[in-house]
Amino acid sequence: MVPVAKNSLLKFTKAILYFRKHNFKKILMYTAFLHTHNTMRWIVLAMAVLALYKSWTGWKGQKPFESNDNKIGTFFIASLHLQFLLGLALFFMSPAIELALSDMGAAMGDKALRFKLIEHPLTMIIGLVIAQIGRIKSKKAATDELKHKNAAVFFTVALVLILSRIPW
Q1: Residue 45 and residue 80: Cα distance in Å, rounded?
Q2: How many domains is the chain partitioned into structurally?
Q3: How far apart are alpha carbons 160 and 162 in whole angstroms?
Q4: Domain membership of residue 139 as a residue range
Q5: Under 8 Å between Cβ of 96 and 116
Q6: For 64-90, how does the pLDDT look when each residue is reduced to its tens digit (9 = 90+)?
């Protein structure tokens, strides 16, 4: 296990040094996944904005729910699922998570470790679930207006949650 220090910066530095010393290939993979996860964030946000625009204008403009609206919702959900899988891989590779799991009490007292261990993953999963529910309800709705409305409301709530926990 990673030795635990009192200062969170010192803890994180020790974790990185331990990580680099014991598994160089793992740090390379972690870095690649981290960069991919960071880049994928912008794709998710672009798809969210596009899906929200189509659903809100479709709902308020009383437009028919077309196959293009369906595809945009699908691409938004697909991008969220891919981002989730990348984040899940990162979670299990992260030296910060390894450190936090070695001393949960200290990790809960440290804002940065608590964010990486609990707040970010949990909020993102909730956002993903809400977006997925909205997609399912949108597909199963009886009218075009209800399809757009379900997508607009659920995608908006999901995006607000996601934006609240992105580490800018």
Answers
A1: 9
A2: 1
A3: 5
A4: 8-164
A5: yes
A6: 999 999 999 999 999 999 999 999 999
